[in-house]
Amino acid sequence: MTGPLPLDLTSIQRAPKAVLHDHLDGGLRPSTVLDLAASCGYDRLPVDTEQALGAWFAAAANSGSLVRYLETFEHTVAVMQTPEGLHRVAHECVEDLAADGVVYAEVRFAPEQHLTAGLSLDEVVQHTLVGFAEGTAAAAATGRQIRVTCLLTAMRHAARSREIAELAVRFRDRDVVGFDIAGAEVGYPPSRHLDAFEYLRDESAQFTIHAGEAFGLPSIHEAIAFCGADRLGHGVRIVDDITGTGADAQLGLVANYVRNKRIPLELCPSSNVQTGAVASLTDHPFDLLARLRFRVTVNTDNRLMSCTSMSQEMAKLVQAFGYGWADLQRFTINAMKSAFIPFPERLRIIDDVIKPGYAVLIG
């Protein structure tokens, strides 16, 4: 036994990680945005060099407003309208996650936003899944094993959620493991999409809902009480139903229900600061929720906009709250327990990949 490795970004990159909340259109390489814009004739990018474009995305996302944050996706979605664009972005997404030590990923995107070049919804999903598969094979060729699945997202301000839910069920045997709704929360409650959620429950399909990021506790309550969400996308404002920060903290009815039912929270620390859901990383309720034994998970949300990775998110939490290897392992196992793949596969990744990987780091 040599003892645990020091907890720094380099060592964290070696740790096996699982991400449940990563947006495909929020994780492009700046160089890829430029290349695809040139190839498809998109001429509305704000700057024309890789470094400047990466900096622009980060600066534009740091507005403190979810609505302004979402405006940055106009550019990434615009270059993902062709088979070549979807394929390349999906392929590179897998390579980038694997290079960061991610061994399991659920990557989500909204097919309805990729139809302007004439593709059908089914074709959008098919081309994306091919990209994921080829990215997985490319990562394996370099000795990096990763399992990537897909969530199909419906935009909460639109009226296609039932159609996207049916699409998710149609592809459920081809690595589409669940459904999601996303977009601006204010004015677009999840209960507007009850027919989609009722259909999914009838089909025994799993789904998560973006809730408690910008609108607060009422959004979370609707997501679980009316819609039956299996997980909460962000869910950070569950803290509004908790009084106190110590061992004597008091949970309200909604917070108590979420904890008792072990409903996973897909927390995205950097993104939550950028959108104004929390004031700063040190103010993030992640640590309070972890100490109160909510099922917290660490996620990237949008790697391009937040200029981040899973390793960087974990490193920031280590710096902010003093976590050790055992904590990072617990958060990773939380994610795998909450994944939308079958139980035996979840167990295999936990027992054969995550626990042995952390054992090496802990020493």
UniProtKB/TrEMBL annotation:
SUPFAM superfamilies: Metallo-dependent hydrolases. The record marks H234 as: Important for catalytic activity. It is an enzyme of class 3 (hydrolase). Its EC number is 3.5.4.4. The active site is at E213. GO terms for molecular function: hydrolase activity. Substrate binds at H23, D25, G183. It catalyses: adenosine + H2O + H(+) = inosine + NH4(+); 2'-deoxyadenosine + H2O + H(+) = 2'-deoxyinosine + NH4(+). Residues 16-355 form the Adenosine deaminase domain. Signal peptide: none annotated. InterPro entries: A_deaminase (IPR028893), A_deaminase_dom (IPR001365), Ado/ade_deaminase (IPR006330), Metal_Hydrolase (IPR032466). Zn(2+) binds at H21, H23, H210, D301. Binds 1 zinc ion per subunit. Gene3D superfamilies: Metal-dependent hydrolases. Keywords: Hydrolase, Metal-binding, Nucleotide metabolism, Zinc. It comes from the Bacteria. Its cofactor is Zn(2+). Belongs to the metallo-dependent hydrolases superfamily. Adenosine and AMP deaminases family. Adenosine deaminase subfamily. Catalyzes the hydrolytic deamination of adenosine and 2-deoxyadenosine. This is Adenosine deaminase. It comes from Skermania pinensis. The lineage of its organism: Bacteria, Bacillati, Actinomycetota, Actinomycetes, Mycobacteriales.
